[in-house]
Design goal:
Layout: E1 5-12, E2 15-22, E3 44-51, E4 54-60, E5 70-76, E6 83-90, E7 95-101
Antiparallel strand pairs: 1-2, 2-5, 3-4, 3-6, 6-7
């Protein structure tokens, strides 16, 4: 199964710029379907980005984040060839993770 996360990381002048797109429904629990039934809440609770085993970014999200969220983030200390790992866990216990090489 393909990852739900697409990521690109590029280092320039000591700063790594990371862009990620996460495919997730991010249902708020306040929307009804075509039959009038409430669609249960289903959203990412925690998104983590780590570099060399150290968390460089942690986001606690909720139902207000839109579907298929896009994230752009910069940090210092990454070098070309290093790996960054992005992972998430949602309110239903589902999770995903992927690793990208800094270019």
């Amino acid at each position: 199964m393909a990852s739900s996360i697409r990521v690109r990381a590029v280092e320039s002048s000591g700063v790594t710029s990371l862009k990620a797109l996460v495919r997730h429904p991010m249902d708020s629990g306040f929307v009804k379907d075509s039959e009038g039934n409430v669609i249960p809440a289903h959203f990412i609770k925690v998104l983590t980005i780590s570099h060399k085993g150290k968390n460089v970014f942690v986001a606690n999200w909720g139902p207000a984040v839109s579907k298929d969220p896009f994230l752009e983030f910069r940090f210092k200390g990454g070098k070309k060839g290093d790996e960054v790992t992005i992972s998430w866990v949602d309110n239903e216990g589902e999770s995903d993770s992927t690793t990208a090489t800094i270019g």
